[in-house]
Amino acid sequence: MTKEMKVLSGRALGIIKLSLIAFFSLSFTHHAIAKEKQVHPSSIPVEHFFKKPQFTDMVISPDGKHIAAIYEDKDNSSSVAIMDINLTKVLTSINLGEYRRISEIIWPRNDRFIINYAKFVGYLDDNGSQPSYVAYNLNGKRGIQLTDGNRAFYEIVSLLPDKPDKILVQKRNFQDYNDRGSDLGQIPARLFEIDIDTGKEKYTAGQPANVNDIIADTNGVPRMAFGYTEDRNDELGGGSFYAYVKRTPTSDWESIDTEHMRYPDSKKVARVRLLGFNSDNSKAYVASDYNSKLPSVYEVDMKTLDFTHIFTPERATIGAPLYSPNGGLEGLMVSPDFNRILFLSEKSEMRRVFAQLYATFEVTDESSNIQIHSATEDGNQIIFSVSSDRDPGVFYLYNRGLDGSAPGIRLLSESKPEINPNLMASMKPMRFESRDGIELNGYYMLPTYGEAPYPMVQIIHGGPHGPRDFWQWDREAQFLASRGYAVVKVNFRGSGGYGVDFEESGHLEWGGKMINDMTDASMWMVKQGFADKDKMCVYGGSYGGYGTLQSLVREPDLYKCGIGYVGVYSLFEMKKSGDIPKRNEGMRFLDKVLGTDEDLMRKFSPALNVDKIKANLFIAHGSEDERVPMEQYEVLTENLEKIGKPFIPMVKEEGHGYQLLENNVEFYSTMEQFLADNLKK
């Protein structure tokens, strides 16, 4: 540990230095007792894995006197509590109602905070409604609705440091969306200032027309804007792209030539992402894959508009940005295997902070994930968390001593104190070549007890286009490993995170090569000696439910059982029901990724090929699912019943993934018994 920093390291020391609030039921004493009782991973209760975390985020106020914490005290909603910096007093607690998920807390002023929330129906519902913003005083009073996600899409562009009573937002009207029948991302964005005390908004004129995304520099001045338009006659992705920039805060907007920013082998516009400005606003950063398979990062000199290539990731696309306390971009997350931060400068302030934290906790980016959640206006105090594949995470407050005080780190809260990391299994990155020569990446987990080869469960992620699996705490994988199962998760072709070519290689291959990749992952586990070929099961939710049933159709003799959870089972039904085909853009997307060939769609619809399934089945769904409605469950189960194929059914009055703890406990307890009956006898 570094000598100049006083640190409370170790989870047991939390009870000595941390004042606990009964309201949140935080007790490290209880956690220590639980550790003594949990002598074997298989004895950990199911609910310990699937109980909601105590806190999902903690955000410090600009002056460092208060902390806003997001927590989930109810199964189908989240709340925010405002506490003093020592966590000894709760000033207010706010819950916005059922199915309202709070995703972000923003402090524009010391005396007022903003909640970003949206409606989500189901644990696996990662789209939800459009976000809304509401502002409150510290005591929870004078709540003002700043934006309404039911009327328009709003996004905060800047907190306007010189105007503490205002925020700058970009607004896209849904009426434009309805008139154009286009994707939400193509709607023109307009800038407005919103008064955080009254909710009144004022149009800020001057931005270019036909832009969809605008970013401001660290002083709140809009300086870069991109736009994309596409009509029904254009190929999906083959529309027109626009870019504008202001060299100085007082300059006029200039148009930038973008014709070269298309893929060389097609007419499609390359993916372009505005990342932000450096701390002194002399440089801007964008990412694009117009000249590389994975998005490269470019530095833009704001005076000359010269583009300089900074780096191109080798295996995975760039992820979340890392900003300094004043909003300057300093680093980017890249996750080829573990989660690594690529800093944009050797002199980066955040680079020094991370180096101090890695040294203090004696960890690396291959053993822990360190995440900065918030910082005070002067950058002196930082809230961060440390988590890993085995640890759901711990929140800490770091006093850097920039004000002359003694540097130190104080433990704030454990995310899930009922979980003992010492009993959890390790998640290992894997990389192998598919049967047709494609490099595939993923992760596997082996139980902490027993001997290989183990009975195995493959977990298939949802999406499928966009999402991917990461190295992190995984409640489902840990639950299965605690019960003695090896687990494998592969980022099959079509997954996000590995470039456009890799993602689009899954188009028209939902039931073909994507399933081959899953099969190859299972066989990789067998070849490594990790999995028993005669004792394997497959499981997944949403697209993962589809992949599960299609794997059983394609490989009837490979798996003993399958668990389909809120899954798609008929591609024909997918084009008729649910929320995706309701939009013109949604139907164009489905035709692109699923195709229009009815013979292929029939071949790739497991509900229409149930006669090929030999494995035992457990099928679970939510009667209120809007993403994958009950029609999918019904077409599968009715066809199973027609041929007399038995299955274990479960339907709960929930959405796209169960949220209620009692339903999760029943679902995973049923899964535990189902797997034991099929893989351990």
Describe this structure in words.
There is one protein chain. It is built from 14 helices and 36 strands. The longest helix is centred in the last third of the chain and has 19 residues, at 661-679. Helix 8 packs across helix 9. It is an alpha+beta fold and 681 residues long. A hairpin with a 5-residue loop joins strand 20 and strand 21. The chain has an eight-stranded mixed sheet with strand order 29-30-32-31-33-34-35-36, sandwiched between helices. A five-stranded mixed sheet has the order 1-28-27-26-25, covered by helices on one side. The protein starts with 5 loop residues before the first strand and ends with a helix.
What can be said about this structure in brief?
The protein has 681 residues and is α+β, with helices and mostly antiparallel strands. 19% of the residues lie in helices and 32% in strands.
